[in-house]
Fold this sequence. Notes:
Blueprint: E1 9-12, E2 17-21, E3 32-36, E4 42-46, E5 55-60, E6 71-75, E7 80-84, E8 91-94, E9 105-110, E10 117-121, E11 129-132, E12 140-141, E13 151-157, E14 160-168, E15 171-175
Antiparallel strand pairs: 1-2, 2-3, 3-4, 5-6, 6-7, 7-8, 9-10, 10-11, 11-12, 13-14, 14-15
Amino acid sequence: NSGVFINPADYDSENNILYANKVKFNGSQTNRIIEIDEDGDISTINLNTNSNVYFSAVKLSPYFDSNERNLFLGTQSGKLYKIINIGNSNTVQNIGSDLFPTGNISSIDIGYNEDHILVTFSNYGISSVWYTYNGGENWQEKEGNLPDMPIRWGIFNPNDNNFVLLATEIGVWETSNLLSDNTNWL
């Protein structure tokens, strides 16, 4: 009795835990995600995001130690949060930008480390690709020459963050110069 029809989630393969949105379309279950462990036990994690819309993107950081895992959450209203030490202290940081559009965050990807983050939006009429190299302190719009279309997913090349692939409303796009001032998409 929670979540949305196509519910965003991410899997922690080290600990066999699935993290997923718990907030419903109507706003009930606000500030919550669910945690499902390898035995199928479900628990609720209450967060202090001050957001009453559902989490539209969930990304577990690939960088962790045995004591701490960080989770990134994007909302349908353009907010981006970093949850430090998920399942334990659950410290919430708003790492989004006032420059972000009020739109649906469709994906979050982590690059070389947690300072390099790619965020995409899936709405028409807005800037849909954003990048930070310093953990959200400063964000750069990377729309470049893309047509006005929803971006469904974005991923870094794990060997070189200058290379990015986007899954869009009208096909797959790539760039080999994300880090330049004038990003060009093909």
